[in-house]
Write a structure and sequence with these properties.
CATH class of the largest domain: Alpha Beta
Oligomer: single chain
Helix content: 40-55%
CATH architecture of the largest domain: 3-Layer(aba) Sandwich
Number of domains: 3
Distance between the termini: 56 Å
Number of helices: 18
Shape: globular
Number of strands: 13
Strand order of the largest sheet: 1-6-5-2-3-4
């Protein structure tokens, strides 16, 4: 990959691009920083956008430094939050961090990665150090953060601890002497705080590479907060299905950040979508194969696609569906509630009225259908819920 593509493909902004190009031209391996707050045990594919970019830099000989935010995770990144996060314990953070490691190294080369924990420097931080750090930033600077300003002006709760978050993340860059920091566009303020702090301390300020935020299954940014993620450890079939359920509008972006298709081919894909000369479903299937293969294996991707075709294209039921035993003749409405296909009888009736219930592939037209013990029937609700009546 040439430098122009490295700094533009899957990249939202570079600060300062001319300086970073100069650093790359010097031919000296750079220290590439990215930090993760292990607030939950699972990473999602949105995190992988930055990880893929780190891997590309690694392949040019540069050194990745992974920061495990075992202190900042206990605060929680306030960016984009309308309320204070619930504090996590050190034990919860460390347990989450252990799972992060395995997921991180599905993308980034373990042999060319240095793992550092914030507790290495914050564990011995004195009050004198904390006061010195806080004294290097003004309230006006902190209120330039959109989230802080919005909450302050609305009268919502905003703790001093949250105001410290960008400073602590910035100090990480000082502690490991970062040359470049990577993060999503929502991290711009925090990363620039590190650049500012390094300059104040007489260090060469780090450069910044910001990657785009990826839409989740509901169209909002992919976030554990919104419960709209495609998780890296998600089973292959479910991962494949989640990608296929995404809106068609994400196709060009997903191709750009999750695949290695050449740029001219990417331009042709965009053109074909605009002209309507390609079926978006075929393109999403290609993306889904690529994503599953990256985080599982090519064989798992093939199996996941075959299962998807059987279930949603050929309308075949999945082979591993749950079973529900019948001991007596049971009306379809009662069965749906008992088997967990509907929350209540009224919901079951609404689903039947809407044409969303099938038995052995045949649409259920009324409430009077009674299933018999030993029927070995497959009951389907919508596109994804199946139960075999045993």
């Amino acid at each position: 990959m040439n430098i122009d593509e490295l700094l533009t493909r899957g990249v939202a902004e570079v600060i300062v691009e001319t300086e970073l190009r100069q650093r790359l031209a010097e031919g000296v391996p750079l220290r590439l920083k990215q930090g993760f707050d292990p607030t939950k045990p699972d990473m999602h594919i949105g995190h992988a956008v930055g990880l893929r970019k780190l891997r590309q830099f690694q392949e040019l000989g540069h050194q990745v430094v992974l920061i495990v935010g075992d202190w900042t995770a206990q605060i929680g990144d306030p960016s984009g939050r309308d309320e204070t996060r619930q504090r996590l314990s050190a034990d919860e953070v460390r347990a989450n961090a252990e799972t992060y490691m395995e997921q991180f190294f599905r993308v980034v080369d373990r042999q060319r990665t240095e793992v550092r924990w914030q507790s290495e420097w914050f564990g011995n931080f004195t009050l004198e150090h904390a006061l010195d750090l806080a004294g290097r930033f003004t309230l006006a600077q902190m209120l330039a953060h959109e989230t802080f300003r919005r909450r302050y002006e609305s009268g919502a709760g905003l703790t001093i601890l949250e105001l410290m978050y960008p400073m602590l993340q910035g100090y990480d860059s000082v502690a490991i002497r970062a040359d470049v920091e990577f993060g999503g566009t929502d991290q711009k303020f925090n990363i620039l705080a590190g650049r500012e702090l390094m300059a104040q301390l007489g260090m060469r300020p780090q450069q910044v590479v910001l990657v785009p935020l990826i839409p989740g299954t509901d169209g909002r940014k992919m976030s554990k907060t919104f419960l709209n993620t495609i998780d890296i450890r998600m089973p292959p079939a479910e991962m494949f299905g989640r990608v296929m359920s995404m809106s068609d509008v994400v196709i060009p972006l997903y191709f750009e950040v999750f695949t290695d298709v050449p740029m001219d081919e990417l331009a042709a894909i965009r053109h074909a979508l605009t002209e309507g000369s390609v079926n978006p479903r075929d393109l999403k299937a290609r993306i889904a194969r690529e994503i599953v293969a990256q985080f599982h294996s090519p064989a798992a991707a093939q199996e996941a696609e075959a299962a998807f075709v059987r279930q949603f294209v050929q309308r075949e039921a999945p082979a591993d569906m749950p079973e529900h035993a019948l001991l007596a003749p049971t009306p379809i409405v009662d069965l749906m509630v008992a088997a967990g296909l509907a929350a209540s009888k009224s919901e079951a009736r609404r689903l039947i009225d809407g044409g969303g219930v099938r038995v052995n592939g045949e649409r259920v037209e009324g409430y009077d259908l009674v299933l018999q013990p030993g029927a070995n029937a497959v009951v389907q609700v919508g596109r994804r819920k199946f139960v075999r009546v045993a």
